[in-house]
Write a sequence for this structure.
């Protein structure tokens, strides 16, 4: 549904989201929908994300003034998130920021790392940000989709994994894990080789595309090629309405918490690895006997290359 322009700017295309369960995932939802907001709605979202605690205390008029919008825009923002009104939004944000404080996640989140900061402070900020991202990912992830993906991979005759740059490294980790339990998997970083493999896909195969933004052209092309030949396609991304997510059969979502020197694309790695670890374990559960046997054979094959336990050297 496209709403008319408000506050002198074009309104975002807003599809009302399902009602949230209590206050869970309010800030996650704001971050997820942020790229879809434009103009006034985007300014409200950015204000909420910049200082959630202040937003939870502000009146609707105060939040509108701080974001340079109007109370009507704030009301539309609430509805876009699935709330009936501003009071529900405030309660949701307050509960979420309260949980974060209790868990210690708020330490230095949102603060820029300075060149002279001691490593103790830097470590605290990274740990707090990654902890928040992990919890947000757990709230965002649809376990039914993980079940579907695990079932497809467990039954697959071939698994192609596509990703570029940092996503390629994450894909290689997944390929290594699947390889150890006997799942025929390949991680492709070269577009030409990836396209050749994707073109040979058929029904029963699986293609996994990894992209934080969901907008990496090569990954989209590779996943689309595999899907066109009958492969079941899986997207791992932070944006559910991105081009990559829209063409995939199964979508697995992650959340991020950027820090200085670690923008979203880099801070996405740990949440991506957590989701793929979950997916890998789910596959291993479904192929338990095969996986156990594969582990034993691979461990025996490499055992001769491990250092002697008695500490002797050659």
């Amino acid at each position: 549904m496209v709403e008319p322009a408000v506050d002198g700017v074009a309104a975002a295309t807003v599809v009302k989201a399902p009602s949230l369960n209590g206050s869970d995932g309010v800030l996650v939802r704001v971050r997820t929908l942020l790229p879809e907001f434009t103009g006034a709605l985007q300014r409200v979202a950015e204000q909420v994300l910049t200082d959630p605690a202040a937003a939870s205390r502000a009146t609707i008029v105060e939040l509108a003034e701080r974001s340079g919008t109007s109370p009507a825009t704030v009301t539309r923002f609430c509805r876009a998130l699935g709330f009936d009104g501003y009071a529900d939004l405030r309660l949701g944000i307050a509960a979420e920021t309260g949980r974060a404080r209790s868990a210690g996640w708020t330490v230095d989140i949102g603060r820029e790392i300075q060149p002279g900061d001691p490593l103790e402070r830097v470590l605290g900020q990274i740990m707090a940000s990654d902890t928040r991202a992990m919890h947000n990912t757990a709230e965002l992830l649809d376990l039914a989709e993980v079940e579907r993906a695990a079932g497809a991979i467990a039954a697959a005759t071939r698994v192609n994994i596509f990703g570029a740059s940092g996503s390629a490294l994450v894909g290689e980790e997944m390929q290594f894990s699947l390889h150890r339990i006997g799942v025929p998997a390949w991680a492709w970083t070269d577009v030409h080789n990836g396209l050749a493999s994707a073109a040979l896909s058929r029904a029963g195969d699986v293609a996994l595309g990894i992209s934080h933004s969901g907008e990496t052209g090569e990954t989209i092309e590779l996943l689309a090629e595999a899907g066109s030949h009958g492969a079941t396609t899986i997207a791992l991304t932070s944006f559910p309405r991105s081009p990559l997510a829209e063409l995939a059969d199964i979508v697995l979502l992650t959340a991020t918490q950027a820090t200085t020197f670690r923008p979203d694309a880099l801070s996405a790695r740990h949440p991506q690895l957590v989701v793929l670890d979950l997916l890998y374990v789910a596959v291993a559960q479904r192929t338990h006997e095969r996986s156990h046997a594969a582990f034993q054979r691979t461990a025996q094959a490499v055992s001769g290359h491990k250092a002697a336990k008695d500490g002797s050297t050659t």
Q: What stands out?
A: The longest strand covers residues 232-237.
